[in-house]
Amino acid sequence: MTSQYNSSREIVFVLHGLNLTQTNRHIYLVFTLILYLFTIFLNLALVVTIFLKEMLRTPMYLFLCNLCFNGIIGASAFYPKILHDILFDSHVITYSGCMTQIFFIFLYVHCEFTNLTVMAYDRYVAICKPLHYHSIMTIRKVWRLILLTWFLSWMECIIGCVLLARLPLCGVDIDKLYCSNWAVVKLSCVDTSLNNLYGLILTFLNFSQAIIILISYVNIVKASLRSQAGMRKFMQTCLPHMITLANCSISVFFDSMYAHYGSNNSLLALRNIMAVEFLVLPPLVNPIIYGMNLNQIRKTVKTFFKRRVVALMPLVSLSFHQLEFQK
């Protein structure tokens, strides 16, 4: 019979996802750190670029800025803990630390889907109702939609975490690289029907958002085919959005399916890839896709770095002459 853990002292969970030798630990540490810093840099570069350039403060770019900011939250909910575990060969996390990680991963996923839905609506109005776009998508309405995105995501996360926190636990072993809602629910000693029901409600909401996005894009494609200019706008702004949506949806779907139906006897590397794909790929790929496809962002970033290189050239030249003089 499984005993219930004493709630008077904090539970410490044991994570079983990492299996590194002393030799390859440093390789994984350096690779993961570079990946994290590169992800943060790309997303911050887009956020700063959009806010510094007044001409980029349009609905589409503000929604993109929100998407990149959310990507920073998703990456920061995962990378610092895994870097700590690799560096110190630690495989444990406190109950409060676990709940915090679950909350922010929850927040990242739900905000990603909601923000992609809002972006689909914005593209629908821009391409299907171009003459009314500026009267419909006012800056005031854009900020309301962004605030609504965060409000709904926070409410979904708070309810999910409250339902999770009420469960008494009969185990501490999590067969994953990080804490996830379903992994902790499976450790419960009591009936989890309410948690399962809430999970189904959230799945239905995400599915409804996907349907709204698909309907929007059916109408967008129809409108784009009428003119060459519409098709060009579709390729520049809508195609990156569709790639982002597919990337996020497939990643979350595989992680969810594997968490519920995957076998613990499968390869550890496969389990880890399936578990972290939605936390690694979307935050990394989103700014690259949009940065490459949107001319305004590409030009602004290119100009910014050219100015920085020109500004640094005199300093490099001075340092070089000083070295020559010392010789």
TrEMBL record:
GO molecular function: G protein-coupled receptor activity; odorant binding; olfactory receptor activity
Presence of keyword Lipid metabolism: no
Domain G-protein coupled receptors family 1 profile: 42-290
Chain segments annotated as transmembrane: 27-52, 59-79, 99-121, 142-165, 197-221, 242-261, 273-292
Assigned keywords, A-Z: Cell membrane, Disulfide bond, G-protein coupled receptor, Glycoprotein, Membrane, Olfaction, Receptor, Sensory transduction, Transducer, Transmembrane, Transmembrane helix
Cellular compartment(s): Cell membrane
GO cellular component: plasma membrane
Topological category with respect to the lipid bilayer: Multi-pass membrane protein
Principal localisation: membrane
Pfam families (UniProt xref): 7tm_4
Family designation: Belongs to the G-protein coupled receptor 1 family.
Name of the protein in question: Olfactory receptor
Organism (species): Esox lucius (Northern pike)
Name of encoding gene: SUCNR1
